[in-house]
Specification:
The structure is a single chain. By secondary structure, the protein is an alpha+beta fold. It contains 4 helices and 2 strands; from the N terminus they run αααββα. It has a domain of about 55 residues. Strands 1-2 form a two-stranded antiparallel sheet. About 15% of the residues are buried.
């Protein structure tokens, strides 16, 4: 199977540490049903192994943990390094509208 963009995003997400179904769904902005569909095809093709448990309320298997196989690791795009923390920009000071101070200078002592 040729990996499409969604497959690559799933591989990248698992490689970066999102291994539970909930964390994958949150990271990918997807539904659990869509994730399950893609994971099933990726498991069948040998890219991923997934531990599942049956949910009686949903009457379906849910992903508890997902792992990359060696083939999945080789196909996974490199994960980007974590972003550097951004410095909080300082609010700009509005220009002063008052005239400069005209204090008399102290007397000189010569």
């Amino acid at each position: 199977m040729a990996l499409n963009d969604r497959h690559l995003r799933i591989l990248r997400s698992i490689a970066s540490g999102n291994t539970t179904g909930e964390s994958l769904v949150e990271d990918l902005g997807s539904s659990m049903q869509m994730l399950t569909h893609f994971l099933n095809t990726m498991v069948d093709d040998g890219y991923v192994k997934a531990a599942r448990v049956y949910d009686n309320d949903l009457r379906d298997f849910i992903v508890v943990k997902a792992y990359l196989t060696p083939e999945g690791q080789a196909s996974s795009p490199p994960t980007a390094p974590p972003p550097k923390p951004r410095l909080k920009p300082q609010p700009k000071q509005p220009p002063s509208t008052s005239p400069p101070s005209t204090k008399p200078s102290p007397p000189s002592t010569n």
